[in-house]
Specification:
With 486 residues, this protein is of the alpha/beta class. The protein is built from 15 helices and 26 strands. It has an 11-stranded mixed sheet, sandwiched between helices. Strands 19-20-24-21-22-23 form a 6-stranded mixed sheet, sandwiched between helices. Strands 2-7-6-5-4 form a 5-stranded mixed sheet. The longest helix has 16 residues.
Length: 486
Amino acid sequence: MKRLIDLVFRMNYTLRQGSLDSDISAVVYDSRKAEPGCLFVCMPGAVTDGHKYIPAAIEAGAAAIVVERDVAVPYEITVIEVDNARLALAELSAAWFGHPAEKLTTIGVTGTKGKTTTTYMIKGILEKAGLPTGLIGTIEVVIGDKHIHSVNTTPESWLVQKYFADMVDAGIQYVVMEVSSQALKMDRVSGFTYDYGIFTNLEPDHIGPAEHADMDEYIHCKSLLFKRCRVGLANAEADYFDRVLADHTCELETYGLSEKADLRATNIQRIHQPGYLGVEYDLTGLEHYHVKVDIPGDFTVYNSLAAIALCRHLGVSQQEVLNALDTIQVKGRLEIYPTPGEYVLMIDYAHNAMSLEALLTSIRLYGPSRIICLFGCGGNRAKARRYEMGEVSSRLADLTVVTSDNPRDEDPMDIINDILTGVHKADGKYVTIPDRKEAIAYCMKEGKAGDIIILAGKGHEDYQEIKGVKHHMDERELIEDIIAGK
């Protein structure tokens, strides 16, 4: 139980009826979870409006409600009106859990690409340095030894605050999290101030009816992090840098490859050995030492620079940084999987044309004998993605292996035929093998010394969705079965 007056203490609100001198049993925003004595927050949404569920919440025993407009309810119900119920939920949740962010060092990472890898790099370095660190991101939430599967890149604000509180209880001192533009737009990360905010990059993406109206809104939402953090660390070469950081209120440092960056990478070298890809460079500017990272790709340079820029503020030693970066792997993000072959086998989450093109272009710089690219596309999604990915792979890979991903309610062959429409727009060699395990086995059998095989699209996912059912399927297990001859 908490006193209602204590929950609203830091908020801007108007008390429309009732009293703040009462005990609250829970803060809820789903009427199905309402209970006697709870505070129900009426959340507006794209699909439905929480105000419609006030009668259900009151019938379940809600003692108070938070609204954005006038409502007629029994006189014994306390009504609190606010301008923004989503912001109110974030503030109420922070208060309900005792403002746990104030007991942690909070690190938020935003950008179109690189968020997941950068957060894992930071967590890896801090853990190597003996600093207990939690993580909230696209793949999972990590609280000590507990790993919780993620539904959204950034959870709803109540859940963010609960995870923070659980981390505090577990003795964790730092938390690094992916901050999506949707989370910033919908106030999921309001109610506290980040100690550090990181901007990786920004490209045209996430524009559409369910996300952002246009590029201007997307840029604006990304910029909000740098009005809600104390120290900002930004990629100096990122497109739209000036607009994202235009009205920042934080201290600002930059990283990148150019002289204008405060922390710079020079003398970049790509490493390609049997079964291994990586990158190394010299660090200059705010730090001076040689860095080797156990993840390939030019974007790995930027992601590791972001991690180093952050960790230098936390007193992490040079050796601790190097030890972590030289051994780090991120599940499904440029993940090199060991095999007996002399080729390199990589698992990556690239699941649209933009990310696949960036991946293939970056990997080509390693001078492979061939790039063999395996991928499929999800069902019940825009067909344009299929055409685009097919064309990109046919143009940039030496051999495209078209297979099944998550067909959902569609026939896998219909999806494959759509992909082939794109494949035929270029002149690359291709084969179609609908069964994903058979397709992977084909790639591994075809792989020769110097080849790089890319399994794209699934990444960290460990399932295949067919007709509404998620069937367990982890590419790592498929690879092991193939090696074992199963």
